[in-house]
Amino acid sequence: MDIYSLFIIALALSLDAFGVAISIGICRCMKRGNKIKFCFSFGFFQFLFSLLGSYLGLLFNTYIASVPKIIGGVIISVVGVLMIKDGFEKKSENLLLNPKIYIILGASVSIDALVIGFTVFNNISNHSEIFAQTLFIGFVSGCMSCIGFIISRYLRKIEVVTKYANFVGGMILLLFGLKMMFF
């Protein structure tokens, strides 16, 4: 696969993580360390899932191809609903600061990478080529997440956005999850 095609695939896969990074980045509770952990989580799971998908693609391609989008959509929607609920409760602790969320969101935005691994990378016989290509996908996803968090820093300066950050972020995640499941 040429580098241009690989970059387009990596960019398309990273858009989920980019959107989630923007929606959770507008929350004032997010510190730099939290953002770095999310970027690493998004990049790592994109890499891991596309690598696993490439090796398991021949076995599972016909049985699981449509299910991962639904699972990822449900998970993202549930996190969105929980964020909206947190906005109503005005608690001092935030759902996004729970260490389990790094894994849950990282895995849920990366399920499409598993599908891409199933369908695109399963015919490559060179293991080092598969590793390099999936590592590149993870790197692009981590970078796009960083860009999403940078953009969210500017969105946070808008008073309405920060006042309703949990609602806005939750609604974005909920709609994004529904889009993954149904469109």
For the biggest sheet, the summary is:
none
In total, the number of domains comes to 1
Helix content: over 70%
What separation lies between the terminal Cα atoms?
28 Å
| Number of strand elements | 0
Tally of helical runs: 8
Low-confidence sequence ranges = none
Mean pLDDT across all amino acids: 79
Query: What amount of the residues lies in strands?
Result: under 5%
Radius of gyration: 17 Å
3D structure, described in words:
- This protein is an all-alpha fold.
- The protein has one domain.
- The chain has helices spanning 3-25, 32-64, 67-89, 99-108, 111-119, 127-155, 159-163, 165-182.
- The protein starts with a helix and ends with a helix.
- It has eight helices and no strands.
- Helices cover 82% and strands 0% of the residues.
- The model has no long low-confidence stretch (mean pLDDT 79).
